[in-house]
């Protein structure tokens, strides 16, 4: 979860003052809490043995860069985390005294020891989540289908060339280093010690078999964190871009720094190749939009409308794109309209980690008033210290998401836009049915 202070504020017109928008509808909230959800985006931790660590929860973990400030709802003293301790582990206190927190950690360790490899599923049961899409480098103990479905990272496939000219901030230097390591892993899996000499060979021997292996492993989607590496404008595509990409690749495949413009042009072409192959295989493409972690993040480069040339590319029309975080920050309005495109979806993950339910409900309501079939639920839960690990964050973001959904729908009912029955239909769509249809999951 990329949790930082909002760079430009939450530039939305909230409707908190409208009837039903503030507190919601009690019957509606109760029914929403019963719905078993499909969580579209997480960085869940695997079960580890004593002394073992898990670094596969993110290809670009933010703990390796200069940290930014947390928003109010993401800080350790947010009341919903205390509620999570009480509900999950029977915490008997209403404070955070060190000796009491030690009791919490001990109680949690007892549950983890008793549950063993079942601990991740134990958490899902308590959050009311039926299926969780796990955005990880690799899966691991306790993260088994059908409860957990793998969404691998594929930015590394887009970045075979030396990217020193593009790594123009301290954060990008770290992140491109991480991508280079992951690409070596993909090359090794393909039986290669170094890059093939030509772009066509690279596509045929690395990209295609890697995506096929990911599909075979049960991945319903692949993930791009490209906004942490470069702007999301991937050019216009076409034959000229392909010819140029071949020349650039041949020139630098054996090493040496390439000019920034040439690195980006090769990436532009390869992004489309990867997205097209994902669509052919029936996998959606998840892509980070909106704000991100660190003090050097390029918010303007993460604007969802930067992707329009990709979303409007006829050769990619069979590829479904999910705009993760829904342009969190100033771009949620743009996302609402982009959902009109037949292959575009969005989730509100990260928003429910950064903000309380009321402002998130305004975003959800706007999206539902545009295209309710395209809206997905997500928690963006991620690892942390024991007292604020993925299970505790997941409890909090799940509560915020469901409360925000109830507020949004209650406001629509009170304003005469929908009936109570239709509100429940929409709740089921957001929490599970839209995802089931998108990913071809079985009811």
Strand-pairing-aware structural class: alpha/beta
Note the total helix count: 15
Tell me the series of helices and strands, N- to C-terminal.
HEHHHEEHHHEHHEHEHEHHEHH
pLDDT averaged residue by residue: 94
* Strand composition percent: 5-15%
- Give the end-to-end Cα distance, rounded to a whole number of Å: 28 Å
Q: Which bin fits the share of residues in helices?
A: 40-55%
Biggest sheet features: 5 strands, parallel
Report the C-alpha radius of gyration, rounded. 22 Å
Q: Got a strand count?
A: 8
> Can you tell me the residue ranges where pLDDT is under 50 for at least 5 consecutive residues?
1-22
Provide structural commentary:
The chain starts with 25 loop residues before the first helix and ends with a helix. The N terminus is likely disordered. It has 15 helices and eight strands. Helix 2 crosses helix 14 and helix 14 packs across helix 15. The protein is of the alpha/beta class and 443 residues long. Strands 4-5-6-7-8 form a five-stranded parallel β-sheet, with helices on both faces. It is globular. The chain is 45% helix and 9% strand.
List the helices and strands and how they pair.
Elements: H1 26-34, E1 37-42, H2 79-89, H3 98-115, H4 119-127, E2 129-135, E3 148-151, H5 155-158, H6 170-189, H7 199-216, E4 221-224, H8 239-252, H9 260-280, E5 284-290, H10 308-311, E6 321-328, H11 332-338, E7 344-347, H12 351-354, H13 357-370, E8 375-376, H14 390-414, H15 420-439
Parallel strand pairs: 1-2, 2-3, 4-5, 5-6, 6-7, 7-8
Helix pairs in contact: 1-14, 2-14, 4-14, 7-9, 8-9, 11-13, 13-14, 14-15
